[in-house]
């Protein structure tokens, strides 16, 4: 077994030949710490911490109620806000920091940092947004001229005056706002919804098959960035258009497509995404809270007897929750007709699949994602491959190993210290950082890192030492 650093270097080296198309949402996240200054800026909600967010958020009072609800629940949440409230926040509230936001933007920064080759499309690309790309010279933008896609340097695509800004209100356990104490370390996001975010990309929509022919895979997100005000005919026609574009993207052959699911309080919007978009993916990325909501929306008949309540990110961790997650994922995968659903829970990562890439590739992708997630949580950013050494310093979760061992027993399969690899179920423990530098985007880091490494492994030879795992992806001798 080679030293851990050499193995990580080899894993990174496998990514250099991977090209990925990313769309649709990139924005600037304005970070605000929840404190007394924020309380003075907001208006006292009627019942702090009690009611879920109204949609869209239209006032400082609405915003205060939404933040306190997330604090009481101890679970990250997001809601759209009106253009008027977005303008008010931008004019009157000062951010403590700003960073890249939006799933496609966050995943682009990671893909470029790891040495892969991203081609990224987003609706609004202003100078302010451009400044949030860590390595813009490594990113190309798909420009269409005379029906032909010509990737150009990202700097050449800057053409918007407006910037999409999401406001991220971060809090830690014990923080207080209007008498409500936070029960966990997470955040509430007040998301702007500019009219430009309507899932129409002009000439690129008709020429998107040229992108599909040129890349190894696609990481897609942002299908939730619609509001009734900006989609006059309803969500269905817009998502049908997006579905047709997705089909055209992969029309040239076997292009792997990952859709990063984001839930919303708008039930009609969730239903439209589940009907028109998710079934077109090869793999869907999801967290425990999103899984619970998607599963509830599907109204599937699944036996969870003996499991207790459906677990979410806010539930106290119990190893048996993995059995519920497995049954829910299995039912949803079959209902949606996708090849794979990949769950990133706090203590473990779990993939349930049918005819997706090899279980070996998926397992190594999940192990790699655990290192990347720990790095993001500990450092707040990943800007270079060597940053991942930070993630290796955090041990795989003992609770995650216990949960995976329990799932293995349930399936009648063998697990090696929390490492489960079967033809249809793959699980790896996460590496948990107790005091994260930030919480936004960790799920996107998990999905992007696992997906690009899966593509790299599927596209080239692997070195197997007989245990079903390639040493090039293992962090150390204890790495699953």
UniProtKB/TrEMBL annotation:
<keyword id="KW-0963">Cytoplasm</keyword>
<keyword id="KW-0479">Metal-binding</keyword>
<keyword id="KW-0808">Transferase</keyword>
<feature type="region of interest" description="Disordered">
    <location>
        <begin position="457"/>
        <end position="480"/>
    </location>
</feature>
<keyword id="KW-0460">Magnesium</keyword>
<keyword id="KW-0324">Glycolysis</keyword>
<dbReference type="GO" id="GO:0046872">
    <property type="term" value="F:metal ion binding"/>
</dbReference>
<dbReference type="InterPro" id="IPR007666">
    <property type="entry name" value="ADP_PFK/GK"/>
</dbReference>
<dbReference type="Pfam" id="PF04587">
    <property type="entry name" value="ADP_PFK_GK"/>
</dbReference>
<dbReference type="GO" id="GO:0016301">
    <property type="term" value="F:kinase activity"/>
</dbReference>
<keyword id="KW-0418">Kinase</keyword>
<feature type="compositionally biased region" description="Basic and acidic residues">
    <location>
        <begin position="471"/>
        <end position="480"/>
    </location>
</feature>
<dbReference type="GO" id="GO:0016773">
    <property type="term" value="F:phosphotransferase activity, alcohol group as acceptor"/>
</dbReference>
<dbReference type="GO" id="GO:0006096">
    <property type="term" value="P:glycolytic process"/>
</dbReference>
<protein>
    <submittedName>
        <fullName>Phosphofructokinase</fullName>
    </submittedName>
</protein>
<dbReference type="InterPro" id="IPR029056">
    <property type="entry name" value="Ribokinase-like"/>
</dbReference>
